[in-house]
Fold:
Amino acid sequence: MPRGTKIVSAESCGISAWTKTAKVSVVLLDGSPKRYFLKFGTAQCATGQGARALAEGEFHSASAIDALVPGFVPKAAGWGEYHNGGSQVYFFLGDFHDMNLSAAPEPDHFTSQIAELHGRGVSPNGMFGFPVPTVCGRMERTVIWEKSWAKSFTYQLKDVVKYDNETNGPWPEYDAACNQLISVVIPRLLGALQSDGREITPTLIHGDLWEQNVGIDMETGEIVVFDLGCTYAHNEMEFGTWRCSWAFHFNSPIYMRLYQRHFEPSEPVEEWDDRNRLYSIQPYLNDSAGHPGSFSRQIAYNDMLYLCEKYGPLDSLEKYNPEKDVSITGAYVPFVMNQLE
Structure:
């Protein structure tokens, strides 16, 4: 906060499964009031899987997006750490917005803002990755710089597979499907984006763009996105969550159709839906890793089997079951967030 700022009050605000959040009301040195949003968590709440990355990554993510699309994210004020007893606490501080989280963002304006972010957010070195580690949920993702998108995505998928196994334990059939997906399917499906003369441009993505990370500012009516975990990636990765069973606005075809007026599907176009299925596996496993016993693991496993049958058949794997495919059945499974105690 600026020097001379006086804190008037701090009160719990919002719901977060991995951190504690608060609204901090202050008076600035010139006498004007201001409100900040504070997010903080200990290494224990993130169990070594991204406490620092959660705070530092969100600061750099918000700063990067705000520089490209001003007002689309809460302006970042800072991040840091302190000790509370025996605990090391990391925090992120940004501008506070009073938001409506239940209203659907207007599709044309919202998708135009995403397209502006993707169009202007060019990687500083032409590679995939990000300058600092970021998180999705509480899971730190590997974002080291890499020229190959297939390799870059593989790092991130391996992260969530590891976290999921740590939470839910080994499952031999699932592990076999993961191995086939990583060793055969991804090199084929994502490798095609950068082969036979085809190229894709690393672009800045939000990294966890689902309905509960998008709000409407109650004062201005503007769309605000938050809980950022950016990386320079294939732009289509942004929409993996829109396929997930908990999507309730963004699974409407209008959002993707309007976005694709700005960015057409990458070549090979006919493989767009398969890439979208692949990109949805990461948020499914991220959810499974954070919520023991979540049905998301079963959904992700079935999607792996579908992709393996198509791009890397292996007789020893179980068979894909269309009756468990939410993109066919339309099953909706609400995402439940419980406040961290």
Observations:
- Residues 106 and 223 are 9 Å apart (CA to CA).
- The longest strand covers residues 33-42.
- The radius of gyration is 20 Å.
